[in-house]
């Protein structure tokens, strides 16, 4: 069988889309509305994930730019073999992350991922209230 190589950017977007799908499944299970993926939030999350992967020493929970009280950010650093399901599991087992993810007031989400030199996957989710 021929070897199929997925371009890194396609793999990155597929991973991010799977994270959003998992979050939305968890939200609908508790009666919250599904989140809509927002392109602006996605770019901001991707920029932050890239900064973290490049070794930015600032905490991963750096506030969302111009966020005020309408946005929140969740940041994870996972091992190289992590899957979107691992992202969801990590969020569900952390009370603060779980509360943000399932908060029915949030209507939009942006997801960014980046891999550092050691293979760790940095995942940033930016949530915005509706």
Structural write-up:
- There is one protein chain.
- With 130 residues, this protein is of the alpha+beta class.
- 42% of the residues lie in helices and 22% in strands.
- It is built from four helices and four strands; from the N terminus they run αβαβααββ.
- It has helices spanning 8-29, 39-53, 84-93, 95-102, and strands at 36-37, 71-78, 106-115, 121-129.
- Strands 1-3-4-2 form a four-stranded mixed sheet.
- Helix 1 runs parallel beside helix 3 and helix 3 (84-93) packs across helix 4 (95-102).
- The mean pLDDT is 89.
Question: Which helices and strands, and how do they pair?
Answer:
Layout lengths: L7 H22 L6 E2 L1 H15 L17 E8 L5 H10 L1 H8 L3 E10 L5 E9 L1
Parallel strand pairs: 1-3
Antiparallel strand pairs: 2-4, 3-4
Helix pairs in contact: 1-3, 3-4
Q: Main traits of this protein?
A:
130 residues, alpha+beta, four-stranded mixed β-sheet, 4 helices, 22% strand, globular
Main-sheet strand order equals: 1-3-4-2
Report the major sheet.
4 strands, mixed
Structural classification: alpha+beta
Give the count of helical stretches: 4
Rg from alpha-carbon coordinates: 14 Å
Strand content: 15-25%
* Global mean pLDDT: 89
């Amino acid at each position: 069988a021929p070897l199929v190589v997925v371009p890194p950017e396609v793999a990155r977007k597929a991973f991010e889309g799977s994270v959003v799908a998992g979050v939305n499944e968890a939200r609908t299970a508790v009666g919250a509305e599904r989140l809509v993926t927002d392109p602006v939030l996605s770019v901001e999350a991707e920029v932050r994930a890239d900064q973290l992967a490049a070794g930015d020493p600032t905490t991963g929970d750096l506030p969302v730019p111009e966020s005020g009280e309408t946005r929140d950010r969740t940041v994870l650093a996972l091992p190289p073999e992590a899957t979107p399901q691992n992202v969801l599991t990590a969020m569900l087992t952390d009370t603060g992350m779980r509360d943000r993810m399932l908060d029915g007031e949030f209507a939009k989400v942006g997801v960014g991922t980046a891999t550092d030199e050691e293979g760790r996957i940095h995942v940033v989710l930016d949530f915005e209230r509706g």
